[in-house]
Each structure stands twice: as structure tokens, then as C-alpha cells.
Amino acid sequence: MTDLVAVWDVALSDGVHKIEFEHGTTSGKRVVYVDGKEEIRKEWMFKLVGKETFYVGAAKTKATINIDAISGFAYEYTLEINGRSLKKYMENRSKTTNTWVLHMDGENFRVVLEKDTMDVWCNGKKMETAGEFVDDGTETHFSIGNHDCYIKAVSSGKRKEGIIHTLIVDNREIPEIAS
């Protein structure tokens, strides 16, 4: 990896993925790695600018690396996720998902709720869930190992805040990680 020019960490519902890009400006080589696995390799590309598109994670999220010349032999590399800059994608993602990290049974678990679909992911796997209406909102039940879990959704009572989602594991509230 002598021509490594860019590395990005992208948080998706199924986990955080590392994207690495090699660009040989003398050989014209382009190599894209996702989580250490080679996804694209092109040798002897005569056009040194352009884009490489590939897919990341369990949901096959579309990613594009844009290669632009900024001056002479200097290049800029930008990553787009689903057609948005990484920054914009992550800002939007913090509005459309909730993420919790917890430690139990000697293991770390990353739980992600996709608010638009109410899908729940744990350590990269989409969980089997059961929804239930309760007096003050809804509960989405699932299990992690032999632990009973649910995400409680209640109205904040404020239009700007919307619905508040809380993860409960074995009757204990888990704090959300800041995104």
C-alpha cells in the first residue's frame, strides 16, 4: 500500500467500515479497499482524474470516490455515500438513526435503530423484532443472546424534538452515544 492517499471511516447500520484508496499518479493505478478487502483494482489508467463507485456493508450502500486535480500534480479525494458528501451523509444519518454501545457478557454490542424503517441492527446483523403499542408510545422488542431488549419510542411533546427513542436492556436504560 505504497500509494495510499486517503482513508475514511464510515458508520453504517451494520458497523463502522474502513475505506482505503490507493492512487498511483505515475502508474495510473487505482485500488479501493473496504475493511481491508480489495473491492476495485485498476492498473494503467491514463486518465488520472475521475471516480470509482463501489458498495459498502450489508445493505450494499453506494459509495463513490471522486478524484479531482487541484493543481499540477496535486489531487483531492472526496468520498460520497448515497450521492452525498460524507459530512452531509453523516449529518443526515444522525437525524435518521440512534446508536447505542453496551458491554455485557464480556462482549461489546453496537445497537442501531433506523428511525425511518424501525429496523434494528446489532453488531452488523439485522435483528428480528416485534413491535408493540403501549400507553405512552411503542416498544420494539428483540433479544441479544439471552438478554431481553426493547427500544421505547415516546413523544417528546415538542415538535422540534419529535420522538424520543430509549434502549432498555434487562430493564436498564442504556445511554445513547453522541453522533
From TrEMBL:
Keyword RNA-binding recorded: no
Signal peptide (residue range): none
Subcellular location: Cytoplasm
GO CC annotation, single: cytoplasm
GO aspect biological process, one term: apoptotic process
Keywords assigned by UniProt, alphabetized: Apoptosis, Cytoplasm
Family of this protein: Belongs to the FAIM1 family.
Biological role: Plays a role as an inducible effector molecule that mediates Fas resistance produced by surface Ig engagement in B cells.
Name by which UniProt lists this protein: Fas apoptotic inhibitory molecule 1
Organism: Cebus imitator
Lineage: Eukaryota, Metazoa, Chordata, Craniata, Vertebrata
